[in-house]
Amino acid sequence: MATPTNSKDSEKKFKDPLLTGFDKDSDDDGMESLDLEASAKSEEGSVSRSSSLIANFRLDDDCDGETRDLFIVVDDPEKHTSTLEAYITFRVTTKTTRAEFEGTDFSVRRRYNDFLWIRQRLEENYPTHLVPPLPEKHSLKRMDRFSTEFLKVRQTALQKFLTRVADHPVLSFDKCFQVFLTAKAWEFQAHKKQGSGFLSRVSDSLHIMSASYMIKNRPPEFAVMHDYMTLLSDKLAVMDRISQRVAKEQNDYMAELLEWGPCYTLWANSEDQLTGALLTMSKAVDECVRAIKELIDDTDSKFAQPLKEYLLYTECIKLVLRRRDAIQNQYDMVVDELAKRRDEKENVKSSDQTYSIGAFLGKDPEDVKQQKHEKLEQQISDLIHQMESLNDKTVVANADLKADMERWHKHKQRDLRETLMNMADLQIAYYEKCLSVWESTIRSIQNKDHIQLPSTAALNENHNPSIP
Predict the structure, then answer these.
(1) Which letter does DSSP use for residue 157 in this model?
(2) CA 305 to chain centroid
(3) Which residues contact 444 (CB under 8 A, 6 or more apart)?
(4) Residue 254 — pLDDT band, cuts 50, 70, 90?
(5) Of 358, 333, 335, 362, the residue nearest 348 (C-alpha)
(6) Are 234 and 18 in contact (CB under 8 A)?
(7) How many CA atoms lie within 13 A of 199 on its CB side?
(8) How would residue 455 be classed by pLDDT, with cut points 50, 70 and 90?
(9) DSSP per residue over 57-118, as a string?
(10) I want to staple 176 with a disulfide (CB 3.0 to 4.6 A). Which of 121, 170, 407, 416 is the partner?
(11) CA 394 to CA 452: how far, in whole Å?
(12) How high is the mean pLDDT of the chain?
C-alpha cells in the first residue's frame, strides 16, 4: 500500500483558525471578511442571520458548485402520550427532484429515537465517511424536555443534522435515509427492525478501539489530522467550560437584579420627595433584568449549543479515524503474516523432514515436505488475496475520510466564524440596551419636577409638575 505523504497543501487544509487567525491564505472561499464596520451593523446583522427560514439551509450551502436537489425542514414539535411513555415527534418535510424518490413532496413525523436510528444505520453502511452528530438525548441544563425552549433548541439541532446529511454527496443517496424521509409510520417501524444487532455493534466498537492502540505506521497526514482534532477538541472544551461559568455568573447577576429592583419600589413608599426617582430606578433595573435574560437565552442557543455541537463533531471524526486505523491495522497484520509464511516456505525447501511428526507416523519425508509446501502455497495465495482486498479498502477509506474532512473544514470555518460573530453581536446589543436604559434614567431623574408626587403638586397651586 502506498503511504501518502504530508504535503504543504494537506497542512494548509487543516489550519486551525483558533490558532492562526482568519488570514487571507486560509481556504475559506466565498466567506465574509471580518472588518470593524461589522460592529456597527451588529444588531441588524444578527437578526437577519437568525430570523429567516433560509438560514436553516445556510449551514451547508453549496460551496463546490453542486446543484442542490434535496431540501428538508424540521418543524412543528408535537407531544404524544401513550400508556408507557410521553414523547415528542417533529414534522420532517422534504422537497426533492431526485429520480430515486417516488414523488417530489413528502411529510412525515419522526421522534428523536428515529433520528438516532438513521444515524446508526449511516455509520454502519458508511463507516469511513463522516456522519454528522446528533444533539445529546438529555440535557443537564433543562430537565423539562417538553418545554418550548428545549424543543426549539432540539428542533434546530435536528434540522442541522438532516441538512448536513442531505448535502453529503454519498450519505444523501442511502436507501435507509430515503426510507426515513418518505416512509409512512407503519412502514418505517417495520424497516427499523432490520439491521445489525446490539452485540455486533459492541464487538465492532471493541475491535476499532483496540486497533487504534495497535497500529504502528499511521500515515503522517492522518497522524496530523488526529493531533489537530485533539487540539481543537481541547480548545472547544475550554471555551465550553468558560461559557458555562459565565452563564452561571450572569444568572447570579440576574437573581441579584431581581432582588435589587423591588428595594427601590419599597423605598419609594417612605420617601415622598424621591418617589419618582426611585420608581424610575426600579423600572431601569427591570429593563436590565429583561436584557440580561435575553442575553443568557440567546447566548445559549447561538453560542453555547454550537460549541457543544462541534465538540460532538470532533468525537465523530476521531471515531472515523479509528475505523480507518482498524482497516489499516488489518492490512498490516496480513502483510506481516504473509512475510512469515513466505519465510516458512523458504525454510521448508531446505529443511530435513526425517525427524518430523509426519515421518514418525510412517510417512515419507519427501511427501511430508511436499504437503507442507503445498499448504504454505495455499496460505500464501489466500493471504495475497486478502492483502489486495484490504489494500483496496484502505485506499477507499483514506479517500473517503480526506474528502469528508475537506468539506468539514470549510463548513467548520464558516460555522465557528458565524458563532463568534453572533456572540459579539449579542454582547454589543446587550450593552447598548443597558446603556440606553441608564441614559434615559439619568435624564428622567435630572428633571426636578419628576421627583414630586401628585399630592405635593396639589399643595403647590402655582406649580405644574410633570409626572411620568
Answers:
(1) H
(2) 9
(3) 277, 280, 450, 468
(4) very high
(5) 358
(6) no
(7) 0
(8) very low
(9) HHTT--SSSPPP-EEEEEEEEEEEE-SS-EEEEEEEEEEE--TTSSSSEEEEEEEHHHHHHH
(10) 121
(11) 83
(12) 78
Give the position of cell 414534522: 91
The SS3 assignment for 214 reads helix
> Of 400, 410, 314, 414, whose CA–CA distance to 14 is shortest?
410
Distance in angstroms (rounded) separating the CA atoms of residues 452 and 467: 8
The answer to whether residue 224 scores a pLDDT higher than 50 is yes
User: Smallest Cα–Cα separation from 97: which of 162, 166, 163, 159?
Assistant: 166
Answer positive or negative: Cα dihedral of 185, 191, 197, 200: negative
Contact residues for 166 (Cβ-Cβ < 8 A; gap 6+): 70, 71, 72, 172
Distances (CA, A) of 8 to 15, 36, 389, 399: 11, 32, 30, 18
Cα(444)–Cα(284) distance, integer angstroms: 11
Query: Which residues make Cβ contacts (< 8 Å) with residue 449, sequence separation at least 6?
Result: 463, 465, 466
Range in 26-30, 222-226, 396-400 the model is least confident about = 26-30
Q: Which amino acid, 374?
A: E
Which span out of 46-60, 72-86, 228-242 was modeled with the highest average pLDDT? 228-242
DSSP-derived pairing of the beta strands 70-81 and 105-111: unpaired
Higher-pLDDT residue of 26 and 307 is 307
Cα 285-286-288 angle, rounded to 5 deg: 65
What residues form DSSP beta bridges with 81? 86
